Amino acid sequence: MKATEDERPIDQRLRRRRFLGAIAAGCTAGVAGCAEGASDDIDGETVTIVPPSNPADSDDQWERWSGMTPYWTRVVEPLVWGTKEMHAKPWLATDWELTDDTTWVFELREGVTFHNGAEMTADDVVHSYENDILERYGDFVYGWLHLEPGSVEKIDDYTVEFTNTEPFPDFPGTIGHNMLDVHPPSADPWNGDVIGTGPFTLEDVEDGQYVELGTHDDYWGGDVAPDGLTVRAAEDETTRTNLLESGDADVVLEPSKPRLTSLRRSDEFVVETQQSSGSTFVSFNLYEEPTDDADLRRALNYAVSQSEIVEEALGGLGRPASGPISTVIDWAADDELPDYERDHETARELVADSSYDGEELTCLVRGDQDDDDLIAQILQSEFDAVGVDLDIELLERAAYQDRTGRGEFHLAIDGTQSNSPGADYIMWENFHSRGVDNIDLYEADGTGLHNLGGEVDDLIETGFQSNDPEQRHEAYVEAQRRIVEEAVVIPITYREYAVAMDATIEGVELHPIDRLLEWRSLRRSQ
Amino acid sequence: MRTYLAYRLGTSAIVMIGVSLVTYGMIFLTPGNPAEVILSERLDRPPSQAEIEAFEAEHGLTDPVPVQYGRWLTDVLRGDLGTSYYAETQVTSMIGTALPVTVELAVASMLIALAIAVPTGVLSAVYQGTSVDVVCQLGSLVGVSMPNFWLAYLLILAFPLTLGVLPVAGAGSPGQLVLPAVTLGTGMAAVLTRLIRASMLEVLAEAYVDTARSKGLRGRIVRYKHALRNALIPVVTIIGLQFGSLLNGAVVIEVVFQRPGLGLLLVDAVFDRDYPVIQGITLIAAGIFVVTNLFVDLAYRSLDPRVSMGGEAS
Question: Which residues of chain B are within 8 Å of residue A396 when distances are taken between CB atoms?
Answer without folding.
Answer: 32, 270-271
